[in-house]
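COMPLEX REQUEST
Ligand: nicotinamide-adenine-dinucleotide
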Amino acid sequence: MNDIKKWIAETNKIVIFTGAGISTESGIPDFRSPGGIWTKMQPIMFQDFLSSEASQIESWKRKFVIDKDMKVAKPNIGHIAISKLYSKNKISYILTQNIDNLHHDSGIPDNKIIELHGNSTYAKCLNCNKRYELSYIKEFLEKKDNNYSTAPKCIECNGIIKSATISFGQPMPIKEMQIAEKSSIECDLFIVIGSSLKVYPAAGLPILAKKNGAKLIIINRETTELDSISDRVLNKEIGVTLDKLFY
Ligand code: NAD
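STATUS: Structure written out below.
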């Protein structure tokens, strides 16, 4: 902890990289912990979503179940500690794999949060990018004469509407990846918080940072495949740890 505190004190070019683990203390389950979402259901691949209306409907059903946790979630002491460090002008960017909006809710400006896997609080037409609110989608699916039998289509171009998240098999957002790569190359300290580091290309960013001279820190309850290349690993609970490190 002392070494990490010293490295934080020495630079204002820190990149924070977060995964589902930072939000478990807000009541949102992660994917790979025991009891996590992938232990209960298989992910729907992007190609299947595109080619099958049944997959689209199944995906909306799952989304509205997961949303029950997400809707009521509030930033926890881990998110707040990061926003505290941000307010000390220490952080260049927060790169997040999360889709829950909790870094925004903790008060960090939108342009400093790079959402690598999108945002689940709204939906978009995959063809023309028109934004749709989730209340509209839910109402459409739950209409008496529909009752989850047809998936919503764009009112402008009849394109497929999807939650504004990135699914397995879906291309990564270009602008976000460019900023993420540049900031990883340029930072002095890259801190991974609450990620199993199993999902690529996002998990390639800590490797990129390390190769370009940054110190790499991993804070995660379980071991990860990148522990061996990191400068320090803290297998600890995130909230209390960040509260001690970032204040
Ligand atoms: P993951 O589920 O693969 O890994 C989460 C890691 O966090 C695990 O290794 C676990 O041990 C650790 N962890 C959980 N709670 C912790 C705590 N309180 N303290 C310390 N460690 C803790 O998640 P990932 O690496 O982010 O990859 C999964 C994908 O799932 C991401 O792409 C993300 O988009 C998505 N996801 C997002 C959310 C969200 O937005 N909150 C939730 C679930 C999944």
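REMARKS: Residues 19-21, 23-25, 28, 30-33, 36, 97-100, 117, 194-196, 198-199, 220-222, 237-238 surround nicotinamide-adenine-dinucleotide (CB under 6 Å). The chain has two domains: 1-28+74-117+172-247, 30-72+118-165.
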